[in-house]
Amino acid sequence: MADNRRWWALVVIALAQLMVVLDMTIVNIALPSAQADLHMSDGNRQWVITAYTLAFGGLLLLGGRVADLAGRRNTFMTGLIGFAAASAFGGAAANEGMLFGARALQGVFAALLAPSALSLLTTTFTDPKDRGKAFGVFGAIVGAGAAIGLLAGGFLTQYLDWRWCLYVNVPIALLAFAGAWTLLDGGGRHPDAHLDVPGALLGSAGMLSLVYGFSEAESRGWGDGLVLALLAAGVVLLAAFGLRQTRARVPLLPMTVVKDRQRVGAFLTTLLVTIGMFGVFLFLTYYMQRVLGYSPVRTGVAYLPITVGMVIGSTQIAARLLNRVPPRALIVPGLLLAAGALLLIAQVGVEPAYTSHVLPGTLMLGLGMGTAMMTSVSLATGGVAPRDAGAASATFNTAQQVGGSIGTALLNTIAASVTARYATAHAGPGVDRRRLAAESAVHGFNVATWWAMGALLLAALVAGVVIDAHRVPAIGTAGTPAPRPVDTPA
To answer: What is the mean pLDDT of residues 388-406?
Structure first.
């Protein structure tokens, strides 16, 4: 592909990825309004987010194989059109069931779109220098897209309606479709590609069982028989999925992808990071709107420091140092900085604390996450044969979405349970009920944020122990990344 055409192709791919990432968070700002409009309970509200991330994560590996079978460009364009249609359906939702269904349908088409986008990127930019720049842009989009979604959600909710947080995807998808039709090459089709339907069913059912089990724990309790049965079934089904992948003729998850130590480290790190991060966005949104009384627009603006930090971390730190230092020298400090940010955010109370806690915390969070995640995505997709680029890309995205699904359900359950216990313990005659409700909610958010910080610290530990490559490998290189020499400082 000609040089100029390659960079314009990057614009198209980045635009599509922005839409996918943006849709993970744009509904966060709109969620309080949608919850009131459609009469959702506090226990059910998380399904607006989880229905999307669960369908997305559960079908990503299958989506990667569809891209190999039908061609990455065709799959990419199909995903765009389907995503636009599902978004229009969600915007017109008349009840919570329609909204949950539309969000799940968005996740299905995002599962086609995301792996084909990332594999198109990795096979288009193979030169190490250009690849570093391209992944810097891509990392900034992945990181900043979440915060941009929060800002856009604020403006759309306040000045139009929460439904426009879904309708807005339609013109974006159509614009990206036109660009893909004009600029993107067809992408390789592999004659031996095969859809492992039993594997897809086992993996999706396992993840659904786990997430549903976490969500039911909020109302039933952790010791309830159904909750324990769902969690146990999830573990068994995922174990069966792993066994199936070792025996399938053309597995959804090739063993060559997961046998590499560096990629496994990147996948596990990403999984743990997103377990912690998705819930924090949800809690901060409710904290700013319900406790501090911020409008949707002001809430979106309050998230801008995350965007700034993400852009700086991915384009000015990670992209510049990616080919100069070991990957874990970027990932571990980035995650420790992000964990420190959550430590600061977890100290907020019912009194306004944006300037003292939320502002510096979100800036630190963006800077740390931008540096760590851009490095992780490069490590996860580097050094893989072109025929497995779709599977590697899909596995990275799966780690993100599964982590987000589990994290949202788990942290929402923890926050709701702690909030209820705090309110019961402090209730009594003469107590200001409104202030008690605010104090209870903030206490629940803070406890859940401590758990999120623990997930980030565990991710930093995994990255420091498992990832030992000297440099991030280029796409299509033979073998695995060279291990870091003993005398090279990490």
So the answer is: 73
Average pLDDT, integer, range 241-251: 81
- Tell me the C-alpha distance between 344 and 402, whole Å: 26
| Pairwise CA distance, residues 401 & 407, whole Å | 10
- Kindly state the average pLDDT of the residues 291-306: 83
The whole model's pTM is what?
A: 0.74
pLDDT, one tens digit per residue, over 58-105 is: 777 777 777 777 777 888 889 999 999 999 999 998 888 899 999 999
